[in-house]
Amino acid sequence: MAATSQVFIEPNAVVVGLADEQVLLCLEVLGQARLRVHRFGSAAEAGERIAKLLPRLVVLPATLPQSDLEMLDDRAIAVGASLLLLDGDESYELLERSLADAVRALEARFSAAR
User: Fold this and answer.
1) 30 near 99, Cβ under 8 Å?
2) Does residue 3 belong to any structural domain of this protein?
3) d(CA 89, CA 5)
4) How many domains does the chain have?
5) Whole-model pTM over 0.85
6) Which of 29, 45, 56, 80 is spaced 20 to 30 A from 107 at the CA atom?
7) Taking a C-beta distance cutoff of 8 angstroms, is the pair 83, 39 a contact?
8) Per-residue pLDDT tens for 51-110?
9) Domain enclosing residue 66, as ranges
10) Distances in Å between the alpha carbon of 15 and those of 11, 48, 75, 96?
């Protein structure tokens, strides 16, 4: 009988359709939490990759079309990822706080699962 191999999935996050400044902040805050950040410009591309990447967090702007938001929400739920929806007019400080809160929630969720 063949031995079962274990697969390690690197903790990661997916960001979709964010402005460059928002992506840089995501890289900083999520990187400090040891989450690798994958950036996608389109919802279609991100939707295809979420099932393979198995992210812990998906970050989206609220300005995406409703159909894209629903599709990405479905994909996030399917892989057990948390979803963070950002307003376009958030200040830098509020965005940083939202990301930090999401990281704390993930840490609590995954430390409790151990």
Assistant:
1) yes
2) no
3) 46
4) 1
5) yes
6) 45
7) no
8) 999 999 999 999 999 999 999 999 999 999 999 999 877 889 999 999 999 999 999 998
9) 12-112
10) 14, 13, 13, 14
The tokens for 20 are 């460059």
| 45-55: average pLDDT | 97
Q: Return the pLDDT at 1.
A: 64
First to last CA, the chain: 29
Residue 65 token pair:
């079309």
Beta strands in 1-114 (DSSP E): 12-16, 36-40, 57-61, 82-86
Instruction: Kindly state whether residue 28 falls inside one of the protein's structural domains.
Output: yes
CATH number reported for the structural domain that contains residue 102 in this entry: 3.40.50.960
| pLDDT above 90: residue 42 | yes
- For residue 25, give the 3-state DSSP assignment: helix
CB of 37 closer than 8 Å to CB of 15: yes
- Is 30 inside any structural domain? yes
Residue 85 lies in a domain: yes
